[in-house]
Amino acid sequence: MTAQQSSPFLDGTGVSVALGDIEAELLRLWGPAAVEAGGDADESNVTRVVLANLLVEVLEDPRRVSGVLETVMARHPCRAIVLRPGASAPRRIEADVSALCHLPAPGLPQVCSEQINLRTGAEAAGLLPGAVRPLLESDLPLILWWTSDPSGRVELFHQLAHEATRIIVDLPDPAPARAIATALDRAIHPYSRDAVWFTATSWRTLLAQLFDPSCLKDALGRIARVDVEVESPDSSRPPRAGVWLAAWLAGQLGWNPFGKPAVERSSSECRLDASFHAGHGVVSAAVLWRTNPDLALAAPRIVAVTLTCQGIDGDTTIHLARTRADSPAVRVDVTTPTACHLPRLVEAPEPDQTLCIAAALESSRTDPPFDRARPIALWMLEAGEPA
Which of these, 55, 193, 214, 261, could form a disulfide with 383 (CB 3.0-4.6 Å)? Predict the structure, then answer.
């Protein structure tokens, strides 16, 4: 094979290959690819790196990972096996292979990883687990990145989840509560994580830091109300970004949900109200979401959080709000009856899908705050389903 023949392998176009010949074809392609990238087959300027097996399901909407997968693989070199829609012939899987290379730093060899695309129609989806297993690099973790409603492919999801070390659930926000509950079911897999959980990382950090000063520490145990405001492109269901933040706070502070959350909808704003028992009394939490036609939002964004803390001398109000829905700047205002707090601006950029997936890959498999928030979030999301 000549260097010219390896071009589709290096440029991401992909080289078609029979399913049973994938490993042999990869071995044949890497030599010419190294020569083309610079060097020779014995002393190559290309380093192939595989840190994990990344199994990516995009059987419904391949656009979910368009551009994101390449960036994630550059950050975390791996063997990516991507399940895509394709083959129209029944009971058939088509395959192609390609490489992704990048320079980690000037003067260093190119770091390359490989992508295997498996394309199949609905009738052949049951063949995918058997096709995937021989392609996995041994002794490396298998991370399942799932992007569609698993309740439509329960058997496939269960089989692939059983093989996985961890699961990254990357469904659109909002999504049906049934889909989220299935994807995050601990009985199916104990180490599944919703990618949307990581969109609120900066808000969780800001809220936690607020209570570090001694003058506000006591207020943490006197929270009576939480309001989370979200701008969302979809008003049909509660945005998980806001629900996860409210559920995180409840889980961390040991609040116990009771009753059934209530949903109010209007033409301008929707609202999900939930109640909790805390050691100091009842806490009310609300997630408010509205659509903004002037903002081209690809996904919901938290724009404000307000905590109301009751006290003997009066209420303490903590209000965090973005200066604009699309701005990384957050204004922090604290009003207490006993102290003066000057408002301040902090930078808290909203992570995009790529950063959320990268965070899910980099974080520990075990995440107690997420595990405490999970049942609370699912309880709230189920109540928010359209009638």
Answer: 261
- The predicted-structure confidence for 97-121, as pLDDT tens digits, reads as follows 988 877 666 666 678 889 999 999 8
SS3 62: helix
Structure confidence at residue 41 (pLDDT): 46
Could you tell me the residue ranges of all domains in the chain? 4-164, 199-383
Residue 302 and residue 304: Cα distance in Å, rounded? 6
346 neighbors 332 (Cβ within 8 angstroms): yes
Q: Cα dist. 205→209, 249, 368 in Å?
A: 6, 11, 16
Beta bridge partners of 53: 79, 142
pLDDT of residue 218: 81
CATH 2.60.200 fits 199-383, yes or no: no
End-to-end, the C-alpha distance of the chain in Å comes to 60
Cα–Cα distance for residue pair 65/75, rounded to 1 Å = 15
Q: What is the pLDDT of residues 275-296, one digit of tens each?
A: 999 998 999 999 999 987 666 7
Supply the DSSP string of 240-282, one letter for each residue.
HHHHHHHHHHHHHTT-EEEEEEEEEE-SS-EEEEEEEEETTEE
Q: Which residues pair with 316 in a beta bridge?
A: 309
Pair 53, 79: CB distance under 8 Å: yes
Lookup: tokens for 194: 């919703």
Structure tokens at 353: 């899908």
